[in-house]
Amino acid sequence: MSKEADGESSPLEANWQYWKYQLAFEQSRDAIMFLDGDRFEDCNPATLALFRVPDVATFAALHPGELSPPFQPDGRPSRAAAADHIDQALREGQAFFEWRHTTWDGTEFPAEVLLSRIDLERGPLLQAVVRDISDRKQAELALQEREKDLAEAQNIAQVGSWVSDFHTNEIRWSDEVYRIFGMAREEWGASHESFMAAVHPADRSKVQSALEASFQGDPYDVVHRVIHPDGEVRTVRERGYTEFDTDGDPVRMVGTVQDITSQYQLEDNLRRLVAILEGTPDIVSMHGPDGTLLYLNAPGRRHMRLPERSSGEVWQPDTGWDRSDFPPEAEDLESTLRWAHPPWALKKVLDEGLPTACKEGAWQGETALLDSSGNEIPVSQAIIIHRDDSGGILQISTIFRDISERRALESQLRKEKALSESILTSLPGVFYMLDEQGRLTQWNDRLAAVTGHTAEELQGADARKFVPEEEQDGITKAIAETFADGSTLVESRLRTAEGDRPYLFHGYRVELEGAPYILGVALDMSTRHALEDQLRREKAVSESILDGLPGVFYMLDREGRLVQWNEQMETVTGRTPEELDGIDALALIPTAEQERIVESIRETFSRGSTLVESKLLTVEGETPYLFNGLRIKVDGQRYLLGVGLDITRQKRLEAALEHEASTDPLTGVTNRQRFDSELERALARYNRYGSPLALAIIDLDHFKRVNDVYGHDIGDRVLVELTERLAGEIREPDFLARWGGEEFVVLLQETGASDAYSMAERLRRRVAAEPFPDVGPITVSAGLASARAGDNADTLLKRADDALYEAKRNGRNQVVVHANAPESEEGGARS
After folding, report:
1. How, if at all, do strands 693-700 and 780-786 pair?
2. Would you place residue 2 in the very low, low, confident or very high pLDDT band (cuts 50, 70, 90)?
3. Strands (DSSP E) along 37-122, which ranges?
4. Is residue 9 very low, low, confident or very high in pLDDT (cuts 50, 70, 90)?
5. Predicted pLDDT at 417
């Protein structure tokens, strides 16, 4: 029998097999090497190239540990980890793993290693096959980076993607979709049923209808709500399309989901704003950057006799403002202004209003509107320019308010605005509680922080020690008044750690356990502190202290509804707890001021705090109050917390001080300081509009003789009598003031030279017509001058004074017109 028959190979065939394996060994692209214990026996050319070793002899001289870094990426020492893999290969026959290698010159690279045991007669030998996987690792890293970039982009845009496979009933979501739906991957059922379970029950039929329409080929586009596992409700918009097989059956849907909760809320707020604008009695219009009229509220439409809207919303998210029934005049700004204003008001708006608003952001002035019959309606007009971040005009808003019957009210409102600006920095402040001896019994942390005193130093301390010595008597009086009258409001300086600072103290008497105390709030009048600290402290005050606050306490939800208040609110408004619970805060505010309160509430929720002055509907009528507001968060919901202080007394005090500062104490007419201001305004009107204006200076003749003969008391009576006679003759637009001593000035507005002379002469005759009590006949001399182009107060007064001097020099008891008057003036002396 031959060797082939016995299953043995011939020497030639054995050589052929060896040659084939040797050829594969040498031409392999993978590095192949043989290890015997801790040394290399042989390696192929790919090994030398991979590890950058010049020849086999050099490679065989290396220890295997020299081709690895000291540690592997998992932190294990390379030699210990290699020993474990070698033991596994010897024990199990093979070991396959990823490894970090280094080349002969020290460059690291990732590799896959297959260790195979070869059993020989002399003992086992290990064959190692090493493959460089650097390219694969880089590709995997690049893929991970792209997936990370996509996830970040979806998170920034709040847009997630999804795929729904109808064959497997499986839905795959991106990470952003899980975030939008408030779910973790392990909680997601990955099916249509679990998706529908997350949809708000009221929206499920709408979503199902949109899906069924998409199965018929329509685009999938639906807005609906989802409920997070924690109960939070979000609004999302889903868009997608359905893929069909060759038979027309749906096989897969691909789509996106976007969280539009904030956008939805903004749109809802805009609708509320439109509803407010539609309900306000003022006329409100809005123009685009090109001047196109975008919006005119209901009062404006009625004023311009436009048809009432029958149905539909004024503004839609997709289409914007509804301009369908505006006339052609509404296509540009100037045409709209010509349509609405009389010529003089149009000129004022074009020459003054719009340029000022474009430069400063806003303008307010008095103009007029034309009604449908062409009659002029006087209005207060405000123009507001809204710009984008780059300074471009986004919108022009105009507000008109009928002022034909509200001139007096506007004057009062200006005073209130001045007061509001003067006390903007009054809140937040410190809370304190005093016993009958004026000693501190309770306070908040703010008082300790402001004064720099410890709790031990504050306990039982006399409240007067916290104000300067020269003001302690005033504080003593204020404490007594509070215990006697129930409340008081006083301003004094507070000794703080930073020095003396002005504070407004509002005290209110309460009884606790049968003993009288003063509860109060002191508001810093020099700076506006953060309202958050004050309201957090007020939140910690017990209900009994809240009821004793010197004002009304309130807490509003995001819709402006009252959710908490103190007893003072019930007492002041005359409403029961049932009536106040959930009431819209605007129901407690006069209609004319509701828009400002709406803006203040919005500003508080947006910026965190605000301070606003407004009237409150109380049992006594409309009472001026100062309201502060602070945004807080309770159980994840935002609220507005605030205190309103009655400032009626301050209003009265301000009016009295203003009257005292502008009135001559002897005669009761306007003093020189007030006259100077009035003269400057009259000259400004004259220089702007050319309205005629004259000034007369009147001086008592020989008044010194009256004082010398009859005494100063009689002289004062003469001045009072003279004032009454002059005031009885002048007209309503004229302005009488005591200039000083026995001199008086009369500002004759809208009066030409001839009429001015007639008036001055009439005043002279009225004085001389009847003897003065206790003195007898008295006369006056007058100097008269009319305003000229370029005049200022000094030049006009100088000419009138020169004319008065001429009247005195010519014998007194006469009126002299300034000699250098224009030809239209009547000059010369007349007696």
Report:
1. antiparallel
2. very low
3. 39-43, 94-102, 108-120
4. low
5. 46
| Count of C-beta atoms within a 10 Å radius of residue 767 | 22
Strands (E), 497-574: 499-512, 515-524, 552-556, 562-565
Per-residue DSSP letter, 528: -
- Does residue 486 surpass a pLDDT of 50? yes
CA atoms within 13 A on the CB side of 11: 0
Residue 170 has pLDDT above 50, yes or no: yes
200-206: long-range pairs with CB below 8 Å, 24+: 200/224, 200/225, 200/226, 200/227, 200/233
How many angstroms from the chain centroid is the CA of residue 193?
Answer: 43
Mean pLDDT (the chain) is 84
Q: Which residue has the tokens 């086992």?
A: 124
Beta strand residue intervals within 388-462, DSSP E = 393-402, 429-434, 440-443
> Phi and psi dihedrals of 366, rounded to 5?
-100, 125
Burial class for 155, CB neighbours closer than 10 Å (0-12, 13-18, 19+): middle
Q: How many CB atoms lie within 10 A of CB 610?
A: 21
- Return d(Cα 256, Cα 236) in angstroms, integer: 10
Write out pLDDT tens, residues 662-682: 788 888 888 888 888 889 998
Residue 552, helix vs strand vs coil: strand
The β-bridge relationship of strands 108-120 and 562-565 is unpaired
Residue that is written with structure tokens 């009625």 in the block: 302
pTM > 0.85: no
Selection from 180, 158, 182, 175 nearest residue 230 by Cα: 182
d(CA 289, CA 270): 19
Burial class (CB in 10 A: 0-12, 13-18, 19+), 563: middle
For residue 414, name the pLDDT band (cuts at 50, 70, 90): low
Taking only the tens place, the pLDDT of each residue in 141-159 is 776 676 665 556 556 556 8
393 Cβ contact partners less than 8 Å away, ≥ 6 residues apart: 289, 358, 385, 386, 387
Q: Which residue has the tokens 């030998």?
A: 125
Contact indicator for 700, 764 with CB cutoff of 8 Å: no
Share of residues in the chain with pLDDT > 90 (%)? 36
Q: Which strands make up the sheet holding 440-443, listed edge to edge? A: 440-443, 429-434, 515-524, 499-512, 487-496
Mean pLDDT of 69-77: 93
Provide CB contacts within 8 A for 310, sequence distance 6+. Answer: none
pLDDT band at 738 (very low <50, low <70, confident <90, very high): very high
Instruction: Give how far the C-alpha of residue 806 lies from the chain's centroid of Cα atoms, to the nearest Å.
Output: 63
- Whole-Å CA distances, 371 to 74, 308, 324, 339: 85, 16, 22, 10
pLDDT at position 432: 85
Query: Which amino acid belongs to residue 788?
Result: R
Residue pointed to by tokens 């976007």: 258
Contacts 24+ apart (CB under 8 A), 276-280: 276/594, 276/595, 276/598, 278/314, 280/594, 280/595
Contact 640, 660 (CB under 8 A): no
Q: SS3 of 542, please?
A: coil
Nearest in space to 830 (alpha carbons), one of 734, 738, 777, 761: 761
Report yes or no: 280 and 595 within 8 Å, Cβ to Cβ: yes
Residues 525 and 626 sit within 8 Å (Cβ to Cβ): no
Paired tokens of 724? 């009454």
Structure-block tokens of residue 129: 């096959």
